[in-house]
Amino acid sequence: MSFSKRQLLKLSALAAAAAPWSGLVRADSGSDMPAMPAANALDGLQDITGGIEKITVQERLARIAKAQRLMRQFKIDALVIEPGSAMLYFTGISWWRSERLTAVIIPRDGDIAIVTPFFEEPSVRESMSFGDDVRTWHEHENPFALIAGILKDRGIRNGRIGVEATVRYFVVQGLQQAVSGMAITGAESITRGCRMMKSAAEIALMKKANEITLAAYGHVYRQLAIGMTPADVNGLMSSAQAKLGGKGIWTMALFGEASAYPHGSNKPHVIEEGQIVLMDCGCSVEGYQSDISRTFVFGEPSTEQKKIWNLVRQGQSIAFETAKLGQHAGVVDDAVRRFYEQEGFGPNYALPGLSHRTGHGIGMDGHEPVNFVKGEQTQLSPGMCFSNEPGIYLPGKFGVRLEDCIYMTNKGPAWFTEPPESLEKPLGKLA
């Protein structure tokens, strides 16, 4: 089984949360940071998700209606959706993927249907809030024959079946064999057409997820100590986000030279005096994600650390100011790279400099289309959400990344969380 980089980060965070504090020594640096986390490290934190408003049945039905309009526009006769963010988005059904197929079928016209193993039906129905056509299959039976029957019952005997990008090959193969008279095609024009523009309810859930992560950062920052390992910091950050009500938590802590590589290094590191601590963390609320990066210096920062931190903070501002309605998303990346090149970094992706895109789309998935990346021609529109994370990386030394997410309003970009003021005040605040 293979894992995405973000899945690996989640797994490492879970492991870290279970690990005890280790290798801590008292700081003698004169800094304001405490030398050692207290035994009651999570005192004062409480769940802040109590007042959230979940996505309503009416909104999910409106999403399906929009998908059906787009299906007619793009001449797609049915969608087959596996468990994951797309299934949750359209139906509210939270399920997992296995070798036993559970799928939602959205026809071009008419009601949705669900295929699931016989013994899973009661559990699947628990998370259903609408729809009643659930067809079950036993272990020796072919679930794709059920999908063919659903399509036939809705008058679909030929045409095109759309699948989103994450649907597995065995599902595509099974569909091809069961509905041989129909073509299988990508459905990004449908799923992306629905999911890219977030509603006010979705924005509110993302704001809450970002609030949780930012509050957890403040809690962790005050407890950083000389001798802490990445596992120590990840464990504290994971626990803090969980206590505040976050789900789907992931964390990454990079110290010193490891911070020069955007996703870290396998070399062992501990916090030392004057060292960069770069963290990239997030969680979800009702399936909607946060993604915030912060870069601290433990103790007194060097002149070079201050310079790079300030340049990255300027890069964030340039990205924000360039993200105007109607502008091509790629222009945001161009503007940041142009500034960095003027300061002697790059050019383009060359190091030292910015070795990755300026930002990515975000929503129910941590990374969604479209991106702030060179050549992206999609125009910025209200409801789009992005990370804004133009780091600078100096191989062999350190890296700095500041990341706050933005959403496009009718007047232009708005912050989910405002970037920090300075290296001396490195946390930022809620927008």
How would you describe the overall organization of this protein?
The protein has eleven helices and 19 strands. The protein has two domains: 5-30 and 198-430, Creatinase/methionine aminopeptidase superfamily (Creatine Amidinohydrolase, Alpha-Beta Complex); 57-195, Creatine Amidinohydrolase, Chain A, domain 1. β11 and β12 (368-372) form a beta hairpin. The chain has a six-stranded mixed beta sheet, with helices on both faces. Strands 7, 8, 9 and 10 form a four-stranded antiparallel beta sheet that branches. Strands 13-16-17 form a three-stranded antiparallel beta sheet, covered by helices on one side. By secondary structure, the chain is α+β, with helices and mostly antiparallel strands.
Question: How would you summarize this macromolecular structure in one to three sentences?
Answer:
This protein is of the alpha+beta class and 431 residues long.
Summarize the helices and strands and which ones pair or pack.
Layout: H1 5-18, H2 57-73, E1 78-81, H3 85-91, E2 103-107, E3 113-117, H4 121-126, E4 134-137, H5 143-153, E5 159-163, H6 169-178, E6 182-186, H7 188-195, H8 200-221, H9 230-243, E7 247-255, E8 275-285, E9 288-289, E10 292-298, H10 303-322, H11 329-342, E11 359-361, E12 368-372, E13 385-388, E14 392-394, E15 398-400, E16 404-409, E17 412-415, E18 417-418, E19 429-430
Parallel strand pairs: 1-5, 3-4, 5-6
Antiparallel strand pairs: 1-2, 2-3, 7-8, 8-9, 8-10, 11-12, 13-16, 14-15, 16-17, 18-19
Main beta-sheet annotation: 6 strands, mixed
Distance between the termini: 40 Å
- Model regions low in confidence, pLDDT < 50 over at least 5 residues: 1-39
In terms of quaternary structure, the protein is single chain
Q: Give the second-level CATH assignment, the architecture of the largest domain.
A: Alpha-Beta Complex
From the spread of the alpha carbons, the general shape counts as globular
Give the domain tally.
2
Corresponding CATH superfamily of the largest domain: Creatinase/methionine aminopeptidase superfamily
Number of helices: 11
- Rg over C-alpha atoms, rounded to the nearest angstrom: 23 Å
Instruction: List the helices and strands in order.
Output: HHEHEEHEHEHEHHHEEEEHHEEEEEEEEE
Q: Can you give the mean pLDDT?
A: 91
